[in-house]
# Entry
Amino acid sequence: MYPEDRVLVAIMNNPHDWEVVQTEGWYRIPVKKAPEDTPNIDYLAFYFTAKFGSDKWAIHYYASIEGHELLTRAELFPHQPNHPRSGNWYYKLMLGPLRHKLPPIVSKKWKRITFILSTGDRFENALEISDLFQCESPLGRQYVTLKEG
# Structure
């Protein structure tokens, strides 16, 4: 990962979605809720919610983005043709191999997170979720570098 790589942290609140990531190698983001730069991200990281037990409120895994498609939910899940959101558009992000983030990036205080757009250097050096936000320092990405020393 390069310092300038774009990293999107996405919420993982559904064990079925995590199974799709692990077995099929893709993740979906509703276009209506997606950050503007979604088609241009380099890495996707997963923030686990309380449904993941002892792994909750932390980022344990991430993967490179190998490509993306724009599809309807019906195209993503053809076995659910009558789903209420079957006509909604989604980004289907194709993922490279899952990588384990060690140590994980934890949330010391519970935070409601949907997406965080960060950089490669922040992600690699972060110990706590707040380390990913650019607003932590007026110096921008230098915050992580200065914090390490």
Remarks:
- The two ends are 20 Å apart (CA to CA).
